[in-house]
Each structure stands twice: as structure tokens, then as C-alpha cells.
Write a structure and sequence with these properties.
The complex is a heterodimer of chains A (about 280) and B (about 240). Chain A is mostly helical. In chain A, about 80% of the residues lie in helices and about 0% in strands. In chain A, strands 1-2 form a two-stranded antiparallel ribbon. In chain A, a hairpin with a 2-residue loop joins strand 1 and strand 2. The longest helix of chain A has 27 residues. Chain B is an alpha/beta fold. Chain B contains eight helices and nine strands. In chain B, strand 1 and strand 2 form a beta hairpin. The chains are: A mainly alpha (about 280), B alpha/beta (about 240).
Chain lengths: ~280, ~240
């Protein structure tokens, strides 16, 4: 039996993870365009770590608290990510330290706490490892629904506010002159990135989510000089990276998160070759 | 009643509550062409941004005509844009139209017609599908002017619009501005290092130098005198009026 037919016959095993991966890939690829254009790649790295911190903290607190808010990994992860997003989107400087340095500080703090708290958890250690390294191959039905609804909602919000998000990202001074709510639009933009990071990190893991936020937009920037096409190519590249990553992970028995990230890297190499030879869309 | 379009009343300009120069009194009327001159770091751009409302005055008040609001067309100092954004020239120019398009509403057919009209007027219609980052300095200045005009502004404000173009490009841009002011009856405020440009095109001049605490405003003949040019720019000149 060929590898492909074996894969197809096992669809009941990979169907839900594949759907979640593809939906996550497309929404992360879409929002990642802003991450790359606004030169805030490390914000997404920090957010994925803060989201992971929410998950491990919830597992840890399960031993001490009965409060649902504190012990539900998805809810605490979402709360911490959104709080970080709001703080970082509304302030440009912190005590004379640049935002970039504070992002590095936040990344290191979150990463350190994830490892320290993760070390103290005995229950659910497999889940913690899944979140950190993206080895999750099984997703629950409610995760598929949550990720899909989240993606649809944010695609719609971005459809309606596309012109405005591009405007405040490209020329915030002119946007202020035209009385556009620059801070409000930036807050919505960052919040959408934060919510998507929190929800997809829970389903896929930190590494593949970071990869899907950064690499598909880089690929798209390499293969086109057209703004609107960028927002079509990048989500499609994210979707393909997730689908191919899952396929390779299944047939070659590789860690899923790493497979997705490496396929996304492959796309950027392909994009670089296209740019080098002038093969642009 | 003074029929001003912009009036500065006892305004002190500056940043973060720290005054640079003031109190300033300035009254700008419809269809006037103002040149703003002064040494580097003298406060010209801060004055422009205060007039635009981008920087709040430290003290005093900036008033906008009878309606209390104006549509501004703004040409900032060039080279401040992030070329990672793959915008076409037409998409870039269309942003100037956003002052007339609310948040959440896309660019309509009528808006694109206006954008095309100003691309044509500034002589860059043939570049409309080219990436903004790939065009020359002179073409970029024209795109900036087209962007400022596409909002059909009451007041056009330009910060060093000819700084990165050659002599011919400068003459073309200035003649275009003069033509637009005459045909559209809009007010123009321009910051320029080139005194000859200001003398040729402006009918009113602001001279500002925060280090000397100097601020003069009025007809160009009143402001650009032998003593101002000699003291500030170190020019040994005699100003003669053209008959």
C-alpha cells in the first residue's frame, strides 16, 4: 500500500488536526502580514510565549485553586495574551526603554516562567510539552470549532477594516491628521493577533504558531510587490505549510509542530529563489 | 470680522509642554500663499505640525475658520516611509483621499476618479501601477503632492517639498502648486530652504528662529528685508522691489 493511500485511509486520525492546522495557518498567515510589515516579529514570539505561560500557569494552579478562570488553560492563556497585547499596543516607551527592549524582556520572562512552572507540574505534563513544542497531533472537537469561528470572525473584521489597518500601519501621522482613531485601530489589530495567537497556540503549539505568523508573510513579500495579493498569498502559504507539515509528520513520523515550521521555512527559500530570478506574481 | 481660515492666538509652540518660541500671532486667509523660512532647527516643522493639529500648542489656541474644522492636504518631508509596504503609486495617492472616507468604508468609484485626476495633473498617471518604492525622488515628490491634493483640501501644507529634487524638478513642482492654487482657490503653506522659491511664489512669509526667539509674519516685502536676511542668513544683500 502506498504512503498516500495509507494516509488517505487514516483520514479519521488526521482530519480534525489537519482542519485546525489549515485554518490556523491561514489566519496566522493573514495577520502575520501586519506583524512583518510593522516590523514587530518579536511581538509574535513574545505573545506565543505568554500564551504558553497562561497554559502552564493554569495547569499549575489546578493544584491550588478551584476558580474556573484561573484553572482553564485556554481562558488564562487568552487573558494573559490579550492583557500583554493591550499594554504593548497602547504604549510606545516604558521608563525610557524602547518598546523593542521591553518585548525582549517580556519574551525572556515568559519563557523562563514557562520552564520553571512547567518543571513543577506533575499532572498534564504531556499537554505542557505539546503546547511548548507543538507536538499536538490530537485536537478535540471544541478546539476545531473555536479555531474556525475565531478565524471567520477575524477575517470578517479585517475585511471591513482593511483600508484602515493599512493606513494606520503605513502612515499613522496622516491618519491622526485625518482624525482616524489610530490608537483604537492599533488596539483592535494587536488584539486580533493576540486572540488568534492564544487560541492557535493552545491547539498547535508555540513554535508552529510563531512560524506561521512570520514565514508565510515573508514568502508572500518575496513573491509579490502587490499589497492585496500579499494578503491572499500569505494565508494560502500558511494553509499549505500546515497541511504539508501534517502530511510529512504523519508519513515520516516527525514531530508535527517542527514539520509545519520547516515546511514554512522551505516556502521562504522557494520565495527567495523566485525573487532572485524575478519570478513575481 | 477678520475672515481668517487659520489663526494662531498667543500660541507658544513646543514639545511635551516645553515651549520653543512664542507667543505667536498669525492670521492666514483663504487663497493666500505663505512661505515659512528660517534656519535649520528653527521651529519651522514644529510650527507646521502645530497648525495641522498634530502637536498641541504649549499655550494659546489654534482656530480654524468659521466652521472650526478644515480639510488639510499634507506633504511631509520625504523619505520617512517604510518601503517594506508594497504599495502601488495609485494606492499611495489614494490615502490622501481617506480624509473624506470614514473608517470601515472602502474606496469608491468616485474616489478613484479623483485619485486618477490628480495622478494625471501631477504627470504621474503612467506610474500608477508601479511600486511606490521603485520611483525616483522627483516622481515621489509628485506622488506626495498628488496624495495631498486628492483629498480636495481647503489648505495645502508642504514641508520641504523640493528638498530632494533637482532645479528643473523644483520649478515643475512649484509651478504646479501655483497653478493649483489659482484654479482651486486653496490656501498654501510651504516650508522651504530656498529663499528664491519663496520670493518667487509666496505672497506672505513667516520667518521663525527659536534660538533667537524671532517670529515675523506678513507680506513678503515686510518680512524679507535687508536686516533679516543679513542677520539670520549672513547674506550681504539689498532687497529691491520689482516694479
Amino acid at each position: 500500500m502506498s504512503v498516500l493511500s495509507e494516509f488517505m485511509n487514516s483520514y479519521f486520525l488526521w482530519r480534525d488536526p489537519m482542519v485546525v492546522g489549515m485554518v490556523s495557518g491561514s489566519i496566522c498567515g493573514f495577520l502575520g502580514v501586519y506583524v512583518v510589515l510593522k516590523r514587530i516579529v518579536f511581538v509574535s514570539a513574545m505573545l506565543t510565549q505568554i500564551s504558553s505561560l497562561g497554559v502552564v500557569l493554569a495547569f499549575y494552579l489546578q493544584g491550588f485553586s478551584t476558580l474556573f478562570f484561573l484553572t482553564d488553560p485556554s481562558l488564562l492563556s487568552l487573558f494573559l495574551t490579550c492583557a500583554a497585547v493591550l499594554i504593548f499596543s497602547l504604549r510606545e516607551r516604558f521608563l525610557y526603554i524602547s518598546q523593542e527592549s521591553v518585548i525582549g524582556w517580556g519574551y525572556i520572562l515568559a519563557s523562563g516562567l514557562v520552564i520553571v512552572i512547567g518543571d513543577r507540574i506533575t499532572q498534564g505534563s504531556h499537554d505542557v510539552a505539546s503546547v511548548l513544542f507543538g507536538t499536538a497531533v490530537v485536537v478535540e472537537r471544541h478546539e476545531t470549532i473555536t479555531v474556525t469561528i475565531t478565524a471567520v470572525v477575524f477575517f470578517l473584521i479585517h475585511w471591513f477594516l482593511f483600508k484602515d489597518f493599512i493606513f494606520v500601519s503605513f502612515d499613522p501621522e496622516l491618519a491622526r491628521l485625518f482624525r482616524y482613531p489610530v490608537r483604537g485601530l492599533n488596539a483592535i489589530l494587536f488584539l486580533s493577533i493576540g486572540v488568534v495567537v492564544a487560541i492557535t497556540t493552545r491547539a498547535l503549539g508555540a513554535l508552529p504558531v510563531f512560524a506561521l505568523l512570520v514565514l508565510p508573510p515573508v514568502f508572500a513579500l518575496l513573491v509579490t510587490d502587490r499589497l492585496k495579493l500579499l494578503f491572499v498569498i500569505s494565508p494560502f502559504a500558511g494553509l499549505l505549510s500546515a497541511a504539508l507539515g501534517y502530511f510529512l509528520s504523519f508519513v515520516l513520523s516527525l514531530p508535527t509542530g517542527a514539520s509545519i515550521a520547516l515546511v514554512a521555512v522551505f516556502f521562504t527559500v522557494l520565495g527567495g529563489i523566485c525573487r532572485r530570478f524575478g519570478l513575481l506574481l | 470680522m477678520d475672515d481668517f481660515i487659520i489663526r494662531l492666538e498667543k500660541v507658544t509652540i513646543g514639545y511635551n509642554g516645553k515651549g520653543l518660541v512664542g507667543p505667536l500671532e498669525l492670521s492666514i486667509k483663504r487663497n493666500q500663499f505663505w512661505g515659512i523660512v528660517g534656519p535649520n532647527g528653527g521651529g519651522k516643522t514644529t510650527l507646521l505640525k502645530t497648525i495641522l493639529g498634530l502637536i498641541p500648542p504649549v499655550r494659546g489656541e489654534v482656530r480654524y475658520g468659521e466652521s472650526g474644522s478644515l480639510v488639510f492636504g499634507y506633504v511631509p518631508q520625504s523619505g520617512n516611509f517604510d518601503h517594506l509596504f508594497p504599495l502601488s503609486v495609485a494606492e499611495f495617492v489614494a490615502m490622501g483621499r481617506y480624509c473624506r472616507i470614514p473608517v470601515g468604508v472602502g474606496i469608491g468609484r468616485r474616489d478613484w476618479e479623483v485619485v486618477i485626476r490628480y495622478l494625471k495633473k501631477t504627470g504621474i498617471l503612467h506610474l500608477r501601477n508601479r511600486p511606490f518604492k521603485s520611483i525616483s525622488g522627483g516622481e515621489r515628490q509628485r506622488a506626495l503632492v498628488a496624495r495631498a491634493l486628492s483629498g480636495e483640501p481647503d489648505v495645502l501644507i508642504l514641508d520641504e517639498p523640493t528638498a530632494s529634487v533637482d532645479v528643473r524638478g523644483e520649478a515643475e513642482i512649484m509651478e504646479l502648486l501655483e497653478e493649483i492654487r489659482e484654479s482651486k482657490a486653496i490656501t498654501v503653506l510651504i516650508v522651504s530652504h530656498f529663499l528664491n522659491t519663496i520670493v518667487r511664489f509666496a505672497d506672505h512669509v513667516v520667518f521663525i528662529d527659536k534660538d533667537r526667539g524671532a517670529f515675523l509674519a506678513g507680506n513678503k516685502e515686510e518680512v524679507l528685508t535687508d536686516s533679516v536676511l543679513g542677520d539670520v542668513f549672513g547674506l550681504d544683500v539689498t532687497v529691491k522691489s520689482r516694479m
